[in-house]
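Worked example

This section walks through a single chain of length 349. The input is the sequence exactly as stored; nothing has been trimmed or padded.
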Amino acid sequence: MGGLPAHARPDRSGRPRPSPDDVRHRRRARPRAGRESGPNWAPGWLLDGSRPGPGARELVSGGRTVSSRVRNPYVDPGVLSAQRLQVRTVVEALRDHPAVWLWNLGNEPDLFALPPDDEAAPAWTRYLASAIRALDGRHPVTCGLHAASLASDNGLRVDRVFAHTDLAVMHAYPAYTDWATGPLDPAFVPFMCALTASLSGRPVLAEEFGAPTVPPGEPSGILSWTTDAGSPRREFRAAEEALGEHLATVLPALVEVGAIGALVWCFADYDESLWDRPPCRDHRHERTFGLVRSDGSLKPHGSVLREFAALRPAIREPSARARIATDPDRYYTNPAALLPQLYRRFREA
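Given that input, the structure is written out below as tokens.
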């Protein structure tokens, strides 16, 4: 369930909004973290026709790659109206479906577009969450933020976005962080959830974590390749048994830090017939992120997840080390430095 909003307006302090050039410069200067796989996809009406800046993600529209920016979905009035229509249509259709547990406003929305100022993303969250709650008061609402919202102030701070949701979530992958102890660091995901809870004051769902795997029987290793655009890529892939052992450690640690649930990325590997199509062609690690192989057989970490769920673990109060004392405003003055410092303390506690 997705969308993105806020209004074209001065911010709450009455300050004028920064110019687009100021915004692009400021956001580019902020460190980025997280897994960025595959192109963005946008309908033609969302394109604004201006040239994308350096390092922009590939954008596909109408079945082809286009050279354009998108209208900012956090503040463009027309885009906000379209998102509200989408939300109303989807929620009205599915609110009584037994499979619905939670509404998510978007998956890592900063990878599609960055908010132009500090007020835009909280206002967008409030705007869409209120639209959902007007139609469905039974299901909680969240927004799928990832490690970039802890590693930098990218305009989607966890304390400000989750102030308008019912619960917080975190997507965390140690393989994409240079300060983790390794690509299967078992303390990384619990820590990221604990920090999100401490900063936001909301219960946290570990909404996305895991790793791609090598074929059965092969050891963990690095997959190297060159994209169609000539860019070299290197990605870690775990041995299936090693990923199972990793999950067997991470899941009870998530209970210990007070997480309310765990969703492993993702359901199934891609069938080999799709490997030469986007996003698998240039993002080869995405081919084998599944709990099950493409033939439908369960991987070892899928078995670990099933066995752990069968224990029906209860949600607990966070342990002492999971209560990370840090003021959000102070934290976001230098998150790139404070994040690894707090992690070291967490590991040593």
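What to look for: The chain has one domain: 20-348.
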